[in-house]
Design a protein that fits this description.
This protein has helices spanning 26-56, 58-61, 72-83, 87-111, 120-133, 138-147, 153-171, 195-202, 204-210. Helix 6 packs antiparallel against helix 7. With 211 residues, it is mainly alpha-helical.
């Protein structure tokens, strides 16, 4: 039996495109909306090329990946997001890069040799290493990297801080945890927050708006 969606506010959600033929002068109105959206996007891309590109272009030229060649497109996507101002998407993608890079580092360390598709023994080493590390969480892999001295104690500490500030909040989309403890953020003084505003900030909807 098909599952019936029970959502009392379902009639509140709407898509203007679905109502196009029902609205008087709908075609004319949608042409105006289309033009406004295209103009908005054009401004985003023009700003990206004229201003943001020079700010981030060095990251497009400095990639000298050897062991992490498979992450090249992800890095490029993240940089493109920064250029056009899509910061949340860039951070989310960077989390993917971070987790995968650490796993690849451990897989490479365990396999000991460079991947050679003509050598069955080396291929099996990579398969076994992948089974061992690919399913582990970030904390476990950071600790293992530190144990094997792939990076130092300070580097491990820095990665754990990134995990708390960026990875946890954005991956699980818990706004109150995003950038937690970051000192460079703009802060609203407690004296300026009245009771009503404090209540609003605690609501999930307003947490997302703050982000």
């Amino acid at each position: 039996m098909p599952h019936k969606i029970n959502w009392k506010f379902s009639d509140k959600n709407s898509n203007l495109l679905n109502s196009k033929d029902k609205i008087e002068d709908g075609n004319e109105m949608f042409e105006i909306i289309d033009k406004a959206k295209k103009d908005e996007l054009q401004e985003v891309f023009n700003t990206a090329i004229d201003i943001k590109y020079d700010l981030y272009k060095k990251y497009l030229f400095e990639n000298n990946l050897f062991l992490f060649r498979s992450l090249e497109n992800n890095i490029k996507e993240s940089i493109y997001c920064l250029i056009i101002g899509i910061h949340t998407a860039s951070i989310t993608n960077t989390n993917l890069i971070l987790e995968r890079a650490i796993k690849l580092a451990l897989i490479q360390y365990q396999a000991e040799d460079l991947l050679d598709y003509s050598d069955e023994k080396i291929i099996q080493k990579y398969i076994d290493s992948d089974k061992k590390y690919s399913g582990r969480n970030l904390d476990e892999n950071i600790q293992t990297c530190q144990k094997f001295k792939i990076f130092s104690e300070n580097e491990a500490k820095e990665l754990k801080e990134y995990k708390i500030k960026f990875r946890d909040g954005f991956s699980h989309f818990t706004p109150k945890n995003i950038l937690r403890g970051e000192k460079s953020l703009i802060h609203i003084s407690g004296n300026l927050i009245d009771e009503k505003m404090e209540t609003h900030i605690k609501l999930p909807t307003f947490q997302v708006v703050e982000l």
